Automatic annotation (TrEMBL):
<keyword id="KW-0963">Cytoplasm</keyword>
<feature type="active site" description="Proton donor/acceptor">
    <location>
        <position position="148"/>
    </location>
</feature>
<keyword id="KW-0067">ATP-binding</keyword>
<feature type="binding site">
    <location>
        <begin position="282"/>
        <end position="284"/>
    </location>
    <ligand>
        <name>ATP</name>
    </ligand>
</feature>
<dbReference type="GO" id="GO:0006083">
    <property type="term" value="P:acetate metabolic process"/>
</dbReference>
<dbReference type="GO" id="GO:0008776">
    <property type="term" value="F:acetate kinase activity"/>
</dbReference>
<feature type="site" description="Transition state stabilizer">
    <location>
        <position position="180"/>
    </location>
</feature>
<keyword id="KW-0547">Nucleotide-binding</keyword>
<feature type="binding site">
    <location>
        <position position="91"/>
    </location>
    <ligand>
        <name>substrate</name>
    </ligand>
</feature>
<feature type="binding site">
    <location>
        <position position="17"/>
    </location>
    <ligand>
        <name>ATP</name>
    </ligand>
</feature>
<dbReference type="GO" id="GO:0005524">
    <property type="term" value="F:ATP binding"/>
</dbReference>
<comment type="function">
    <text>Catalyzes the formation of acetyl phosphate from acetate and ATP. Can also catalyze the reverse reaction.</text>
</comment>
<dbReference type="GO" id="GO:0000287">
    <property type="term" value="F:magnesium ion binding"/>
</dbReference>
<keyword id="KW-0460">Magnesium</keyword>
<dbReference type="InterPro" id="IPR023865">
    <property type="entry name" value="Aliphatic_acid_kinase_CS"/>
</dbReference>
<feature type="binding site">
    <location>
        <position position="10"/>
    </location>
    <ligand>
        <name>Mg(2+)</name>
    </ligand>
</feature>
<protein>
    <recommendedName>
        <fullName>Acetate kinase</fullName>
        <ecNumber>2.7.2.1</ecNumber>
    </recommendedName>
</protein>
Amino acid sequence: MTNSLVLVINSGSSSLKYQLVDTDTGAAVASGLVERIGESDGYITHKCGDEVIEHRGPIPDHAAGLALAFKMFDDSGHSLTGAGVRAVGHRVVHGGEVFYKPTVIDDAVVEEISRLSTLAPLHNPPNVVGIECARALLPHVPHVAVFDTAFFHGLPAAARLYAIDVEVARAHGIRRYGFHGTSHEYVSGVVAEFLGRDNSDLNQIVLHLGNGASASAIQGGKPIDTSMGLTPLEGLVMGTRSGDVDPGILMHLNRSAGMKVDDIDTLLNRRSGLMGMSGVNDFRELGQLIEDGSTAAKLAYDVYIHRLRRYIGAYLIELGGAEVITFTAGVGENSASVRADALAGLQKFGIAVDPGRNTAKSRTARVISPEGSPVTVLVVPTNEELAIARAAVAITT
Ligand code: AMP
């Protein structure tokens, strides 16, 4: 029996992901996804080694979903209660100004995360539900909250602040918090290790391109800017989120189209980005539509790349030049065309992508810039679960 096992839980509004991580080896011992919570046709996929077991049927709420997932551990012969789980790590989206380090959860912490729901109404409430269910099922194990905003807590003031009335900003906690911090921190650490360099001596740009997408500029291991802001809506074009828009659009939609705040929220968070422009949010489907000749899909792709290049350009200037540019997450790790187009025509800045290296298939960290290129371009798989598990171990040791 090992005591390096950490259960990592990422609880969303209608789904819940979990992974049992061995923090000694970094391996996922088991993992699963509970989907369509609250629906009559819920399902759970649980993987343990090569074995995959599924459950189909109504999953009324998160508590039922997590209890079923725990039962699937039992059914696969690896009971969680007997596994010697040393901690449970919870991904929490918004830590506000209060939480900027992994934090052992007690009732007061749950209350505070709940209070921060005003800043993250789509994310913090389901995070809290996941925490409460897991605490009820594993009451004798420490539970640790790891915040998506934490890495960016110390952003320099010029990058952190919006140019609005300071009193209003202060009264309502309005600042740029940044998100995907666990991934940006993990990936930038892996980059330093991979290159055999000291992180404190490295200027890097990390491009986390998944269904949600964000960019960061990291100087000596510390972020100096990031593309997401008060909420995960700001910045790059995403699967269903618009990223940057003129805030004047919101007032215009309210005054001219009679849209209420919730309509606008839905429009920008769920019906924009690739989905809004092309009808699909998955990059593989977008690629297929482009191949089939869809001009809408091609336009969505062009806007996506244009925005990405704008951020890369900004961060190159902010850093005074980057030594490394890294692609990560679903799109960043898998789409050779996004990587090639994002960095096309930048040879003058010492940036190039080697076509052969870029299209080679690999699941591990790799260089895709040509040999001897002044700027190293990398693809590094992210692993937020491992980072959360390690943070949970570090704080409970
Ligand atoms: P993530 O949020 O990091 O899980 O990334 C999810 C997104 O990655 C999906 O919506 C897809 O658009 C994209 N993705 C996954 N696999 C591929 C692939 N082979 N090629 C292009 N995009 C992919």
